[in-house]
Every structure is written in C-alpha cells, then in structure tokens.
Amino acid sequence: MGVKLKDRVLSVDLLRGLTIAAMILVNNPGSWGSVYAPLLHADWHGYTPTDLVFPFFLFIVGCSIAFAYRGKEPSGAVYQKIAVRSLKLIALGLFLGAFTLTFPFVKEWEEIRFPGVLQRIGVAFFFAALIALHANWKVILGVTVALLLGYWGIMGYLPLPDGSAPTYERAPNNWAMYVDKLILGTHTWKPDYDPEGILSTLPSIATTLIGVITGRFLNSRQSNKSRALVIAGVIMLAIGELWNLTFPINKALWTSSFVLVTAGWALLLLALIYFLNDEKKINFGSTFRMVGANALILYFLNSFIAKIFGLISIGDTSLKGWLYQNIYVHDFLPPKLSSLLYALTVVAFYVALGVYLYRRKIFIKV
C-alpha cells in the first residue's frame, strides 16, 4: 500500500502476516477428506475459526487504506493509483480462475469462474479507498451502517421477481444466489452460488470500512487505544450475535451479522497485539511482520502453485496427491494429522519466502 515506515503500526503488520499464513494454512490441506473441523468453513450458517480469515484480511486492507491515504487530497493521480491497484487485483484473480495447463492455458469459457478472493479484495479496496479519500469517520460509519442495514433489507424482506419471499437458505429463493445465477450464469464456484459473489460483495465493503475507521483511530492521538479496541470488539460481537437471531451469521452470504462478529474478533485480536507490541513494546512476531510486507503476492503465488500441483498428473493422481501420499501418509499418523502436516509445510515454505523477500528488500506491490 506504500505506507512509510514512520506511519506504520506494528500490530497491523503483524496481524497481516498472521492472517496470510492462516489463509495459506486453511487452503492447503493434504486431503480435503481429512481436515480438523476448525480448519474447515461452516457448512452454511454459523462460523468456525477458518471463516474469520478472509474478513480479517479485508479488515486489514481497510486499516492500510487509512494509513496510506492519510492527509492525501483527492486528485486524478490518486484516483488513477486506486483504480490501477484494484484492476491489478481483479486481473490476478481472473487469471487464477481461468488458468489451466492445457494449451492455450485457458479453460473453456463456460468453466471460468469470474468471482474470487482477489477480485473481492480489489472491489472492496476500490470503494473503501474512494470513500476514505472523501469522508470523515462519521460519514464512513454512516455508510457502513447503511450497507449492513440495506443488505439485510434486500436479503430478508425484498420479494424475489416471482413474488416469493426471500430466505437465507440455499438456492433458489435467496437473493445473493439469484443475482449470481442471473448475471454470472455458469461462471461461479458452485452451480447455484459463489461465496465471493456479486451482491455479497456489498457487506464485504462494510468489513473493509470498519478497518478504515480502526486505522484512523490507531493513527489518532487517543490514549488507551487497546482498551477502546476491546470495547468496540465486544460491542460488535454482541450486536452480531443478537442480529444472528434474525439474520444468521453466514460466510457464504457474508451476512451483516457475519460482518460484525468477524470485525469484533479482529478488533479483539488486534487489541491484544497492539497492547503487547505497540504499547508495551514487547518485540515479538517479527517473522510474521516480514511475511505481511508481501502478503498479497504470497497469497497469489500459493494459489497459482497449488493449482499447478493439482493439475500435473502422476499416474492416477496429481503431483500434490503423490507428494502427500508418499511423504506425509503413514500408518502411525492419523489421517487428519498427516493432512495438517502437509498444510504446515506449505505455510513454512511461504513464510520462509516472505522472510527472504523482506530481508532482500524486495517488496512486490500488487
């Protein structure tokens, strides 16, 4: 994001590194059939620790926006930088969705997935950065509340075109899934929906804006910041859990209650790290701070290389399957532990790569 060293908040850098490591961990089990429950997404309603990872990253994107655009005046050059960064993220995500090893290295048109993690980051960054550039924290808070309430109104109360009442269950009578099917057709993760779909991107912008407000607060001269972060986190958790009674916590739909609960946990974890690292000056986690400096490119490389490992065939399995079966699967190891060890090896590789890039002063900005 191009934040100067003197403007950085160490706790945010550390949280970014931890989050990208967690993203790589949950995306790379040795076998999807052998995964410990906390490392899987919730089947539908509810959430697991894995469901916190992506919203944590969007929250951190918002914090970074607050640091990077502090004091900047709107201008054509600034707008261009925001647009270019957003388009680069979207392009990288589309590349991941379209790539295959078969010449000409692009999937059949009907098989290409349009939405994705990087695409959502790009869109959320674009709108959050523009809002942050023009608005004070009160306006940003108002926009956030409007997004959450508006999304609830659409998802829960706006009748579908056929006149049927909407629900929060799976397709077909679900607005998020209806919009994805109508506009994206076959270009989705599942036949009937995508967890990074069109309509559910609106509340993900709210997640990012909460990060913007948090980043501005961390840049302020307020005292007792860790205490304030804890209070804000507890309040958001409480409101999110109460909202869950009528608007279920759901990552696939990125419900408003999900936004508040995940932001609440992000604030609490950030409060702990900030208290130890920035207030008490206890120097820890430098490895993950280094990893966080190249977070997005590490995520992209992991996604791309993992895809190649899954596409290369060795006998009746893939390169990934061959490595997993021949190195990690043993009679004396429980299958889930073998699968976790594979994932931890992948994480260790990208952590080491992140440290190497940082020490060589190589920072690849997406």
Q: How does this model look, in words?
A:
The protein has 366 residues and is mainly α. The chain has 2 domains: 1-40 and 281-366, no CATH class; 54-280, no CATH class. 62% of the residues lie in helices and 1% in strands. The chain contains 13 helices and 2 strands. It has a two-stranded antiparallel ribbon with strand order 1-2. Helix 1 (10-27) packs across helix 9. The chain is globular.
List the helices and strands and how they pair.
Blueprint: H1 10-27, H2 53-68, H3 76-98, H4 117-134, H5 137-157, H6 175-184, H7 201-218, H8 225-243, H9 256-279, H10 286-292, H11 295-311, E1 313-314, E2 317-318, H12 319-328, H13 335-359
List keywords for this structure.
disordered N terminus; two-stranded antiparallel sheet; 366 residues; 62% helix; mainly alpha; 2 strands
3D shape: globular
Alpha-beta content class: mainly alpha
Major beta-sheet overview: 2 strands, antiparallel
Within the largest sheet, what's the order of strands?
1-2
Task: Provide the number of structural domains.
Answer: 2
Level of helix content?
Answer: 55-70%
User: Mean pLDDT, nearest integer?
Assistant: 93
> What's the total number of strands?
2
SSE pattern = HHHHHHHHHHHEEHH
Radius of gyration: 21 Å
Strand content: under 5%
Query: What is the terminal separation in angstroms?
Result: 8 Å
Number of helices: 13
Parts with pLDDT < 50 across at least 5 consecutive residues? 1-7
